[in-house]
Amino acid sequence: MVALVGFFKDEDSSVRWSAARTIGNQSTLSDATIAALVELFKDEKSYVRRSATRAIGSQSTLPDATMAALVELFKDKDSDVRESAARAIGMQSTLSDATMAALVELFKDKDSSVRRSAAIALGKQSTLSDATVAALVELFKDEDSSVQWSAANALGKQSTLSDATMVALVELFKHEDSNVRSSAARAIGNESALSDKILDALGISIQPETHAQSALYIPPIGSSSHNMLSEEKGGEVFAAMQNVA
Question: What percent of the chain has pLDDT over 90?
Fold first, then answer.
């Protein structure tokens, strides 16, 4: 490992890139190796910076200083580097409020792959602030459907969402992209309970028009079979949405 780190100073950028990439295959890196990779964030070649970022992204736990260095890469002129930095941060099980706020700022990035990676990174957090949830809902309007899908999917770990957020998810059931629709259904299915307002919205949005679509039907409010969407029913909704063309 020490020998590989020594190649980080090689005058040939392809050697530096290769060394970082090789180190990235290790499941556990020493603090010294991580620090050396962070130094490569300053490399003049963007593909070397990207390789170093991806290598660090293989680590499940990173020190605060490294996290701060990754956040700094959100300002990198190369969109692939910004995307890799967001992806690396997303591998961490717990993020600070400051880091999550920095990820939300990436929602404004001109590159859709960066916006998508930022949303995915936030989606791995079990608890998101109201402001972060609201920012994710705004991404439902993104021009790129993969960003919309990622934003909806990011809400899937939240056990309690506001009615406004749930209504926005229900609206996604009308989306032309099946990945977006299924992500919205999954997020709704993960909720422990739904208000009458949302059950009503679901009944309107997926009321069957034909016998073939009857699997999508959710009994209306007041039905003896529903006053709460169970986990099982949430799964049925998701499965049904998967079959919508």
Answer: 64
